Amino acid sequence: MPKNYRVYFIGSLIIAIVVALLAAYAYNTVAKMVPVAVAARDIRADETPTEKSVVMGNEPIPAGTPLRKSMFQPVNGAGVAARLGAMGSNLVAVAVAPSADTTVGNTIKRGDKVIVKAAKAAAVEMISQSAEVLDLPVSGNDSKNGINAVVLAVPVTEADKIVTAKVNGFTVYCELLPITRTSDS
Predict the structure, then answer these.
(1) Quick one: which H or E segment has residue 174?
(2) Interior/surface letters 105-139, b for 16+ CB within 10 angstroms, e for the rest
(3) pTM above the 0.70 mark?
(4) 153 phi and psi, to 5 degrees?
(5) pLDDT at 20 (0 to 100)
(6) Which positions ≥6 away from 182 have C-beta within 8 Å?
């Protein structure tokens, strides 16, 4: 008699597994599950997704969801306020006049990290150790893109230091920081 219970138990397990597989298939069919890209880790708004930061997954897409062209646009085309908002709440944008000193000889690009210093005579003052370039003229003082300043993202206290340095006659300049790679890059 005990052997019959084992057979019934194994048969019940097999039936339960088949029912679970059929239920999962039915749910995916009813929910209209489609393969979509899913973030595998946090992705900054101005960062280009890579195969390591995005994986394929199945997610239900609600019927009637309006898909807009803007949802598929690269974030690097967004305005300064949008990029600043994605960076954090304690940051503000501050503008400095474009020159060879603030554009590091016209080599900085949007997204670069720079050190900001102010100099007057023999005095040099550290203002920011890691400001991010939000926007800048196409080249030097060329304002074809509507920007005629180097726009930096800095904490409020550092923005106040930049303004104070400019008012006091200091020359504000930037030093380009090297790109650092993360293990996900």
Answers:
(1) strand 171-176
(2) eeebeeebbbebbbeeeeeeeebbeebbbbbbbee
(3) no
(4) -100, 120
(5) 94
(6) none
